[in-house]
Design goal:
The structure holds two protein chains of two kinds. Chain A is globular, with a radius of gyration of 18 Å. Chain A is 35% helix and 15% strand. A seven-stranded mixed sheet of chain A has the order 1-2-3-4-5-6-7, sandwiched between helices. Chain A is of the alpha/beta class. Chain A has a single domain, classed as 2-enoyl-CoA Hydratase, Chain A, domain 1 (Alpha-Beta Complex), CATH 3.90.226.10. In chain A, helix 4 runs parallel beside helix 5 and helix 5 packs parallel to helix 6. Chain B is an alpha/beta fold. Chain B has a single domain, classed as 2-enoyl-CoA Hydratase, Chain A, domain 1. Helix content of chain B is 43%, strand content 16%. Chain B is built from 13 helices and eight strands. In chain B, strands 1, 2, 3, 4, 5, 6, 7 and 8 form an eight-stranded mixed sheet that branches. The chains are: A alpha/beta, B alpha/beta. Chains A and B meet through helix 4, helix 5, helix 6 and helix 7 of A and helix 5, helix 6, helix 7, helix 8 and helix 9 of B. Bound molecules: zinc ion. Zinc ion binds next to loops of chain A.
Amino acid sequence: MVASKKPTEVRIAGGKLPPIPLPTNCPGCGVGLDHEELRRHTYVCECGHHFRLGGDAWIALIADRGSWKERYGDVRSHDLLNWKVPKPYQETLEQLRDEGLNEAVRTGTCTLGGRAVWLAVFDFRFVGGTLSIVAGERLARGMEQAAASGLPYVLVSASGGARMQEGVLALMQMAKVNAAVGRLDAARVPFFSVLTDPTFGGTAASLALLADINIAEPGAAIGFTGPRVIKQATYADLPAGFQSADFQLARGQVDMVVARPELRRLLAHLLEIYP
Amino acid sequence: MTRHGRRPEETTLTVWQVVELARHPDRPYSLDYIRRMAPDFIELHGDRLSGDDPALAGGIGTWHGRTTMFLGHQKGRSLKERVARNWGMMHPEGYRKAIRLAQHAAKFNFPIVCLIDTPGAYPGAGAEERGIAAAIARAIMEWFRIPVPIVAAVIGEGGSGGALGMGVADRVIMLENSIYSVASPEAAASIVWRDNTRKVEAAEQLQLTSRDLLAMGVVEEVVTEPEGSARADYEATAIALDEALQRHLLQLLAQPTEELLQHRYERFRYIDSLIRAEPQFGPKI
Ligand SMILES: [Zn+2]
């Protein structure tokens, strides 16, 4: 008899989540929020509402404490198209950097439950988590490294799509990263994708939905065209829950919808049972 | 210099005039070119999963003595045909059909010609319900594995991810008065100002003309259009497009498959290399 494998106990703790700006009351249930309590519960309210996390929080949540080694953090964006509207793109970039944010995608290596992995996290606070040249470059380099070394690849997405201020070169990043996903695939390196709220446009239509296992957060909106544009273009009445994680589960686009407090244990277990 | 005796950079058109030419209802569409390039063209249909997408025409024909797979967005000329063709906006079935036909071409070692002319993928509920994001994503990834030469041309509108889903090729060229953009001018205006009537300003900011893309290194060549643009002379435009695509294809046919696929990977992997070559201008990568 083969002993059945029980879901892994994650013995190595993740890092402590950073504080994030929160409303006074939960938009899900209206109850007043205890920020420290919420932080201990990975910013998920008792009602199930998942608050959006930045890249730093995702790294803390997924990486074993002290294991994160950031890579390619010195690759930085510049204003390529002399973009001036509604304000100069260079100013936007500098302002975000002054706030301590380093692009819409950060990547590096870490361990998760003791297993070494490549990790890439989107940050919606940086120009809506948009796919830029630097984001594409960091993703492609990490995937090429993962394909060469055999380390599993874990992605957390939160993105509005391709970054308009970098024009057609941002669009081309979809091809750049998907070519690299093909390399990962050919090398038979496990690729696990966590889709969080929101994942749209050029990010949903490139790497986020191409993983071996697609995992959505409860309540995350996932799709190609946003609901506002669909309504404008087609005058359609969109039903409640359109493009939600459950909608994508029912339509066959994601393998599972997993609550954030369960995510680390699930990923650690997957890393144990995939070669 | 081209047969028309005019260099593409000698334009006096505004950006918005180029956008209007690219979208002009009398502009030649994919089938106008394909039927001239391969008069024996046979259209093939269906994704073999659930449907056929009329926004994408696909099929085989003899081109310079070689059986070739042709794929192209088709906008439709009359109102009835425009509705049937959905203005060249593909649904998920279209991207699945494209890859089905590309694999068919690979099986028989036929080269592939892709003609791009779409405002974008269809922004409707049905497309979302049937997985448009994943369909485009998978198509883009699969194009990198198709082991035959692929030459692509933007002949009108290259709209966003819907265009890129048909635009992974070994060579990508553009007709002079075509556009290729991360977002339509209307969408960009709506994002920047929440006002899509400011599309002219947005178009100027986006850098979406063939000359812009050539300068950025995103396309290999700009094919000059006749005096009065492509719509003034379908025949001459088709000859110029045919000549350019064939010239690129002949270079590709000489490459061993492994080298072809490696170069296709590198073409997109380092597509921002011109920007990188000028560190005072682009990102320091
Ligand atoms: Zn709540």
